[in-house]
Amino acid sequence: MAHVLHLDSSPRGARSHTRRLTREFVDMWRRRHPGDTVSRRDLGMEPPPHITEGWIAAAFCAPEARTPDMHAELSLSEHLVDELLAAGVLVIGVPMYNFAIPAMLKVYIDQIVRIGRTFAFEPEDTVQPYKPLTYGKRAFVIVASGDAGYDPGGPLAELNHVEPYLRTVLGFIGIRDVDFVYVGNDEFGGERLERSLEIARSRVGHLAASRFDPPLLPQPHFSHAPSTAGLDSGARSRDETV
Ligand SMILES: Cc1cc2nc3c(=O)[nH]c(=O)nc-3n(C[C@H](O)[C@H](O)[C@H](O)COP(=O)(O)O)c2cc1C
Questions:
Q1: What's the predicted TM-score (pTM) here?
Q2: Domains in the chain, number
Q3: Residues near 55 by Cβ (< 8 Å), separated by ≥ 6?
């Protein structure tokens, strides 16, 4: 049995492809894994606040030395970290904004990448001072874009700062088992969009049917080299892209 954390970061409602596909993913996952539980956080409609000077001072202060104001400053962050750590499976909807993740998701990441909670910093370890503390999770990321071909191997793959960034930052805290689903062509609409949605839905169906077996042992320490899992080679022509 696993707990699923369903995160959306599109500010669009019914028109959002990521929102619709994460919902379909979670519905299918529930049918395939009936014992699993789900919680949802809507970063698109209710983005967390930006971090502040007070937040930074509190986050980098030893927990036992924090003042009541510092604890108050971190209370949302603590809650978001608890919520993340309670989940075994993450389903994340990500609209591509200016080739990268939307600000709503970035502020969430700033709130959950926390020293002493999701990663450790051990300066005396000269080889590997940063250590992930977030184990045994699997993430599924659904990315939507106006154009197409940003997926690995696609003609616009080099412009994709969503997947490399998310693989780096999730890997930094210990989440390495990450699958991406792409839906493109929102700006073109019509058949191109329909075909892309069809491919994305089929991949969602396949991934939502997969097993989730949390590892029993902590995963190896973070390496500064981002994972290239899922990156294949072979460029495709533009009209083959999703
Ligand atoms: C502010 C903004 C920036 C965007 N930047 C890009 C971009 O860099 N590349 C792209 O292909 N589409 C871009 N788009 C289009 C969105 O990625 C596309 O509409 C996508 O479907 C949004 O996800 P959603 O349907 O879940 O809301 C942008 C849209 C907005 C509103």
A1: 0.91
A2: 1
A3: 73, 74, 77
